[in-house]
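S.,

Sequence below, as promised.
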Amino acid sequence: MKAIVKYGYGDGDIEVRDVPQPQMLPGHVVIATRAVGVCGSDVHMWRNNQSWDISIPVVMGHETAGVITAVAPDVTGWNVGDRVVCETAASICGQCALCRTGRYNLCPYREGFGNLRDGAFGEYLLAEPRVLHRIPDSVSFEEAALTEPFAVAFNALVERATVDPGDVVVIQGFGAIGALALQIAQLRGAGTTIVLGTNNDELRLQKAKQMGADHVLNIQQTDPAALLTTIGDGLGADLVVDATGVSIALKQGLELVRPFGSIVKIGWGPQPLGFNLDPLVAKAVTLYGSFSHSWNTWEKVLGLFATKKLDPQSVLGGVYPLEQWEEAFEAMESGKNIKSVMVPSS
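The prediction came back faster than expected:
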């Protein structure tokens, strides 16, 4: 089958290759991939500036929607023809305290699709039923492929930090996760939403305005701290969402958050901090790390897609065949697309 493979540790070491189709194993199903979202992490792997372990070579891709084409004899409850989305934890130990308490996204033995295990940027994917969810009839494959990034934002703003009605929420960075965090904050009743970007984010900031952000600021031109003094009691943001992927954003977050407020860090940033964390203590700020998601998160997001409370179409920038992967990746990197989606098979 055709698949997008990361084959080396250099910038651009990705290409479409012919690779063996995954073979059925006990306790698994085979999925024909119909739509697969391009994640910011895929772009990082393209440029080889990821800050997580990967296998080489590996079929990339983990934001999967497709159709079951084969079911192992020992699998029950799933049938050929079922429309499904697939969580990202390709394998977990199932035995550690985290797995046993439903926090399998944090399992120390977890291996994710598209980095340590072959992923979905190919025509077929081998998966355990443990990671499958049924796609509502009213949701297209392209929309369903965005379940995973919406689940990331949902976990961060609902299950880790929280947004209360009337809160002032600052979102640092408006890539895919920042855009989806905006939707979740709006759904939760945020009173004021503020999106921050840089000179490189002109297209993204325009999209933030279209999506209803109350304030959209280029931090290289306007000081967001000055704006926050004019909102509410002027003490700062109730919640700062770091969706940037750069470590220095935390320094700004500590400046913008109000005393006893919260910061939730979603973006990965491999750079050392290089600044003082005393404001975290002086303001009694709660700092949340937020990684991945769990079964309930996916079910909630799919339900919100079905009822149109969340709108994946609002961030879907383009749909590309597998052979046009570079165009899809570049559109994400440049900010032309909030989300690109690949269609590996018809």
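The first helix runs from residue 40 to 47.

Coffee later?
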